[in-house]
């Protein structure tokens, strides 16, 4: 079903999910306010989502997600949160910029890459040797204490070692 809906409709599902988490009741006016769209745009999207069996909707009533709608909304939200975390934690992008980029990319992220990103973030959090940071002048630099090795040499050595391990012998 995920392929059958547009990124715009996924935005509506994600917004409904977020409002439900906060307020337990979703109304069209709140969706319009959160998404900065007009009432008629919300109504059209709600009809489209209802026709696809992703929400329960009746005019002037509260809006709820169906089981499938909630599954899709959670999937979109997970992609969004994972991308934002990757941009902030691994690439050290400013949170506001990371948020915008995550919004733009969350729909096109394939499942296998999402799982790899999650694993990478978990590794970065758990590995005591993964201590690098972004420096505007030099790029990524090592933050760990390297005995007598300048940071840039440390990174080149680590990068070269990784390349050697990945390059097959002939």
- Number of extended strands: 4
What structural class is derived from the secondary structure elements?
mainly alpha
CATH topology of the domain at 2-73: Arc Repressor Mutant, subunit A
Which second-level CATH architecture of the domain at 2-73 applies?
A: Orthogonal Bundle
Helical amount among residues, as a percent range?
A: 55-70%
**Strand percent estimate:** 5-15%
From N to C, what is the helix and strand string? HHHEEHHHEEH
Largest sheet: 2 strands, antiparallel
How many alpha or pi helices? Answer: 7
Q: How is the largest sheet built, in terms of strand order?
A: 1-2
- The overall pLDDT, averaged over residues, is 80
CATH homologous superfamily classification of the domain at 2-73: Winged helix-like DNA-binding domain superfamily/Winged helix DNA-binding domain
End-to-end separation in angstroms reads: 46 Å
Assign the CATH class of the domain at 2-73. Mainly Alpha
Global shape: elongated
The low-confidence parts are 155-170
Radius of gyration in whole Å, from Cα?
22 Å
Overview features:
170 residues; disordered C terminus; 7% strand; mainly alpha
Description:
- A two-stranded antiparallel ribbon has the order 1-2.
- Among the domains are: 2-73, Winged helix-like DNA-binding domain superfamily/Winged helix DNA-binding domain (Arc Repressor Mutant, subunit A, Orthogonal Bundle), CATH 1.10.10; 128-170, no CATH class.
- Strand 1 and strand 2 (64-65) form a beta hairpin.
- The chain has helices at residues 7-23, 28-35, 39-51, 67-90, 95-105, 111-126, 151-166; strands spanning 55-56, 64-65, 132-135, 139-142.
- The protein is elongated and about 55 Å long.
- Helix 1 packs across helix 2, helix 1 crosses helix 3 (39-51) and helix 1 packs across helix 4.
- The chain has 7 helices and 4 strands, in the order αααββαααββα.
- Helices cover 62% and strands 7% of the residues.
- With 170 residues, the protein is mainly alpha-helical.
């Amino acid at each position: 079903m995920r392929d059958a809906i547009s990124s715009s409709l996924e935005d509506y599902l994600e917004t409904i999910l977020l409002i439900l988490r906060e307020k337990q009741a979703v109304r069209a006016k709140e969706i319009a306010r959160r998404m900065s769209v007009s009432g008629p745009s919300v109504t059209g999207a709600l009809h489209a989502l209802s026709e696809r069996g992703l929400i329960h909707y009746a005019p002037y009533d509260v809006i709820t997600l169906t089981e499938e709608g909630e599954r899709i909304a959670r999937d979109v939200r997970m992609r969004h949160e994972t991308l934002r975390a990757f941009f902030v934690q691994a690439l050290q992008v400013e949170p506001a910029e990371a948020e915008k980029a995550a919004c733009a990319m969350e729909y096109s992220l394939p499942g296998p890459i999402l799982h790899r990103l999650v694993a990478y973030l978990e590794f970065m959090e758990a590995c005591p040797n993964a201590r690098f940071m972004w420096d505007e002048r030099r790029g990524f630099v090592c933050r760990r204490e390297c005995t007598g090795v300048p940071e840039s040499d440390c990174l080149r050595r680590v990068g070269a070692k990784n390349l050697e391990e990945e390059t097959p012998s002939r």
